[in-house]
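Entry 14. Ran structure prediction on the chain below.
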Amino acid sequence: MLDVGAWAKLTAYVVCIGLVLEFAYHTYWRINRSLVSRVVTPVLRAFFSCACASIPFIAVLVVTGAFCTYMDGQSLRSLGLHRSEDSTLLVACGTTTAFASVSLLFLAGCVLGWFRVERSGVSGDQMPALCGGVCDFSLAAIFEEVALRGYVFSILHQNWGGAAAVTGSAAIFSLFHLVKHPRIPLIFTLNAFFFGVLTAQTRLVTGTLWMPIGLHVGWNLAMGPVFGMPCSGKMYNNGLVTCAVQGPEWLTGGLYSPDAGIIGTTALIVASAALTFFLPM
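Output, structure tokens:
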């Protein structure tokens, strides 16, 4: 049955989030370039880098909180952010699973010659960029989960059930990445949908956002700030290491991201298999 009100609310929310994020990221990079570069002390540069990275995060929370309050008469906690005895365990489980899966991807790529570490270690001058990257990748993971596996999932689940919530939120998650990067490789789009299904399924099973947040944060941190793999079509130079990629793009993802290759799909399969030991997926 077509529920016009639910579709209108879902559409309004997705459009608002898209527009707000576009403005927030524009503001983030403009302030980051103009302010952080003028700060001499590395500690202050790190602080301001992290503060700038929080702008999109705060923007999404404000918009989502407004929809929850004025459209649904509820709080953000109703989206699966309520605390429970196993909240910390769920976050740790998700983070460990994702980080271990990406680590296996990285090690396999190094052994097979697809990945090559060009730089390891971080100097004092690089520390602010590393801190900013950690905040950026972590907060992006959290606000995407709040938006997609939180509010979007809730609307779909309330009106059309669990299967629609899982597949629908995953499709919108994949579409967000496609709109942001129009030349995104097809495999990345499919992997984004696969990752969306995985995190949405854990949201459905656990009833909270803690495990999806852990999965997303662990995946992002491993890919960027830790292993320094290519991100969105360019080398990522702000990680603990810088990883060069060689080999077939369909397999490794090339310069776009390992998530744009079959090796990324394999890591997602490993993560899915691992989660079956923790949850009745």
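Strands lie at 115-120, 241-245. Will compare against last week's run tomorrow.
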